[in-house]
Specification:
Two copies of one chain form a homodimer. Chain A is an alpha+beta fold. Chain A has two domains: 127 residues, PurM-like, N-terminal domain (60s Ribosomal Protein L30, Chain: A, 2-Layer Sandwich), CATH 3.30.1330.10; 129 residues, Phosphoribosyl-aminoimidazole Synthetase, Chain A, domain 2 (Alpha-Beta Complex). Chain A is 27% helix and 26% strand. In chain A, the strands form two sheets. Chain A has a six-stranded mixed sheet with strand order 7-9-6-10-8-11, with helices on both faces. In chain A, strands 1-2-5-3-4 form a five-stranded mixed sheet, with helices on one face.
């Protein structure tokens, strides 16, 4: 959900606390007393990240879930969230969805701000958690010889989006109400060499681990668990929003959660990412706006 | 900077962690290990909280400063901020202002999100700090017999706003680049019975301490340090954006920072706020949008 590369690159120069990993790594990790605090902030914009006219209850759910998913990838247990809410139509539905998602995860709303707005609405959410394992998992620890794993299935959010867009009546839950893999992240944190959530597409996110770790990730397309048929493979791997956990484990270590082995980490090669032995064609990530 | 009362009231029901004080109190306070963490999130919307066409460098400054001011009122030392930024024109100026304010306060940018947007832009900022004194100052501790104090002068931001609006060329710094009273807040935290920052007007914010504490605040208009002449008193007391600290001290306790005594806390009366012995006329807070 990061935008304009130049702006983000410039912002990174402002992250002048060398102990803090932010923007580059979705979450910030700061030490406080004997604890490590994990913080993340994501925004949603109407018409960009959610359909115009989407049920505000779904927007609230997604806003919370995508941030909790960032915590999950750090093995962090949520302490609470802060909400930035632009007032508008159907705020009762927003509240209903917020209630649902906070109750589902047992996460308190700690505070926030509400503002008047016009035109397209925007929401921001900050999630705060405490690390359950140190060092906190990051994208940068994958080593040659590790196995690559992913939880759940890839492509479910894409199908949900298409069901909404095309008004087919098919199930759109995976797109509207993604799940944050908090329990899985906590169970995996002591074992993984690298971990992140799949928010921008399996290929793009895999390439991010490769870049951060200085290795090549080699994926086997036939091993990747798809929520759709193989004819949709190209798009499913480039879509995002599934919020499954993508992680690397040392060879021989079995994950304590349901997950599928999808490839192997190699020494850094001419490209950071291989799919069935070749550099993937075209864009790695899919622009999945409306 | 809180909007629609009904929405906020409904949100408060979602704040189901009784240890967390949020929305009602601008900042959330959560315990983590041996530390107390203080969190706040404010949004700014173009045309609502900042002039259309305002220098984005000033927007960035204000966005950070108003959140740090919330930490100051808690005696908290900033650990960092997370930014939600809607990309748009003159982002280079935004970055310049962000650099200025973060350097000025020595506060790291920990992370955040950037999103594409259209129309009026919105920004969100979360500031995280650690409490330097426990219990963390709140609005609810003022007791009858306490003296009421305020740092700095009231009305400077109003004058700055008018200078910009009327293009008089007069100094608008106080409106564009408010200062967060972090050092003062930290020095005061061990002494105060209640504290908050003056963001929505001295009268309105005083009434909030009165309400939270179950007392009456009795202000002496002649004692209030004004940045303007006495003819502007009515508006100066109802304007906000000065981000001075308003606090109560037990009678006889001298503040360790430059501040002015402006009144006395009384047992709860028929009204929470008295100005020169009478209930103030009209609205307590000033709607200072453009």
């Amino acid at each position: 959900m990061k935008g304009e590369a130049a702006f983000v690159a410039a912002l990174r120069h402002l992250v002048y606390d060398p102990a803090a990993r932010g923007l580059a790594d979705d979450c910030a990790v700061i030490e406080l007393g004997n604890e490590a605090l994990v913080l993340t902030h994501d925004m949603l914009v109407e018409g960009v990240h959610v359909f115009d006219g989407a049920d505000p209850a779904d927007i609230a759910w997604k806003l919370v879930a995508v941030n909790l998913s960032d915590l999950a990838a750090k093995g962090a247990r949520p302490l609470g969230v802060l909400l930035g809410h632009m007032l508008g139509d159907r705020d009762d539905r927003f509240l209903a969805g917020l209630h649902d998602v906070l109750n589902h995860y047992g996460v308190p709303l700690l505070g926030g701000d509400t503002v008047a707005g016009e035109g397209r609405r925007a929401w921001g959410l900050t999630a705060v958690g405490r690390a359950t394992h140190r060092p906190v998992p990051s994208r940068s620890g994958a080593r040659a010889g590790d196995a690559i794993w992913v939880t759940g299935e890839i492509g479910a959010a894409m199908l949900g989006f298409e069901a909404l867009r095309d008004k087919t009546g098919a199930d759109s839950t995976a797109y509207r109400r993604p799940m944050a893999r908090l329990a899985e992240g906590e169970a995996l944190a002591p074992l993984v060499t690298a971990m992140m959530d799949v928010s921008d597409g399996l290929l793009l996110d895999s390439s991010r681990i490769a870049e951060a770790s200085g290795v090549t990730l080699s994926l086997d397309s036939k091993a990747i668990p798809l929520a759709t048929h193989i004819g949709r493979l190209h798009y499913a791997l480039r879509w995002g929003d599934d919020y499954e956990l993508l992680f690397t484990l040392p060879e021989g270590v079995k994950p304590p959660v349901k997950a599928t082995r999808i490839g192997k980490v190699l020494e850094a090669g001419s490209t950071g990412l291989l799919l069935d032995g070749n550099e993937p064609e075209g864009e790695l990530g899919w622009m999945h706006g409306t």
